[in-house]
């Protein structure tokens, strides 16, 4: 992979991490506290608590994505980014652009999902 592509992905990953951290900070600042309007009656309170729970659940999922972003950046730093951890082949640029945190080529990922489906049935 060319140095230009590596820097493109480094920038993409860093930008996505910043966006997710900004959303998390915004949630903490604005969505954690319940206002008096949220507690007007039981239905309003239930709705506010449901919204708050959903927001926190989404931030939890985003935290998992931030961890994957950190691992992808570490792979860039180690010179391993874009290399499938299973077979060692290069991961296509199209796949990396669609999912820059991926660690597997499409063939290995499809095989993994096929095995997971077999064992879940």
UniProtKB/TrEMBL annotation:
ZnF bounds (dksA C4-type): 84-108
Q: Which UniProt keywords apply?
A: Metal-binding, Zinc, Zinc-finger
Zinc finger DksA/TraR C4-type domain residues are 79-114
The segment(s) forming the DnaK suppressor protein DksA N-terminal domain are 6-76
What GO annotations for molecular function exist for this entry? zinc ion binding
Q: Is Zinc among this UniProt entry's keywords?
A: yes
Xref: InterPro entries: DksA_N, DnaK_N, Znf_DskA_TraR
Q: Does the keyword Zinc apply?
A: yes
| Name the record gives this protein | Uncharacterized protein
Question: Could you tell me which species this protein originates from?
Answer: Lujinxingia litoralis
């Amino acid at each position: 992979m060319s140095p230009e592509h590596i820097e493109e992905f480094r920038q993409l990953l860093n930008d996505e991490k910043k966006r997710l951290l900004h959303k998390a900070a915004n949630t903490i600042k604005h969505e954690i506290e319940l206002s008096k309007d949220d507690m007007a009656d039981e239905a309003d309170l239930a709705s506010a608590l449901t919204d708050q729970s959903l927001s926190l659940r989404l931030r939890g999922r985003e935290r998992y994505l931030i961890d994957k972003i950190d691992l992808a950046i570490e792979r860039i730093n180690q010179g391993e980014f874009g290399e499938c951890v299973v077979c060692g082949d290069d991961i296509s640029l199209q796949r990396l652009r669609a999912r820059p945190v991926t660690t597997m080529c499409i063939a290995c990922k499809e095989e993994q999902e096929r095995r997971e489906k077999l064992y879940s049935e």
